[in-house]
Amino acid sequence: MFERFTVAARGTVVQAREEAAALRHDHVGTEHLLLGMLGQADDPSAQVLVDAGLDLATARAAVVRLLGSGDDAQALASIGVDLDAVREAVEAAFGEGALDGPGKGEERRGRGWFKAGGRSPFTPRAKKTLELSLRESIRLGSGHIAVGHLLLGVLREGQGLGARVIADHGLDFAAVRRAVEARLTESATG
User: Fold this and answer.
1) Which ranges in 23-172 belong to alpha helices (H)?
2) Distance CA 25, CA 181 (A)
3) Which residues contact 121 (CB under 8 A, 6 or more apart)?
4) Which UniProt keywords apply (predicted)?
5) ∠11-13-18 over CA atoms, to 5°?
6) Has residue 108 got a pLDDT over 70?
7) Domain-by-domain residue ranges, the chain?
8) CA end-to-end span of the chain, whole Å?
9) CATH of domain 2-66+122-189
10) For the segment 83-93, what is each residue's pLDDT rounded down to a tens digit?
11) Could you tell me if 36 and 19 are in contact, meaning their C-beta atoms sit under 8 angstroms apart?
């Protein structure tokens, strides 16, 4: 499926992983896919959301509000715990990288972008969104999967945090869908 992704759609997935890591989340969910889409500033489909007032910074703030930033270091520091000192002590006792997750041969199973070997795994909803983006591409007769198809996948899945961020911003799914489909049609004929 990923061979059908446009450069911008691949960039969306890469940025989704980066957003999850930056927020210290242990997964890549539909919310991170949404952030990845909004990070494709020149994409006409992402621009639909930006034009409606949902830009990357606004969406990221909404994700942090819903999930937190995973930045426990600040919270612990506020009560006098130095997380770096704790890490150093653990690594001194148990070896370098003791807190880094599964060791060799213990990686979580998965394939391709879903593989968790050192990277956050995709949630079932995010995987479903990617599958639905392929279905949207087929439905629209596209020979590729673009950022717009990913956005249509988020809307069609409708239950993930990506969809919730869109809904909480007051956007109507049907209106966004129509606008994205129009942009996809324009870019296909343009």
Assistant:
1) 30-38, 44-51, 56-67, 72-77, 83-94, 124-139, 147-157, 161-168
2) 31
3) 27, 28, 108, 110, 114, 115
4) Repeat
5) 90
6) no
7) 2-66+122-189
8) 25
9) 1.10.1780.10
10) 566 667 777 78
11) yes
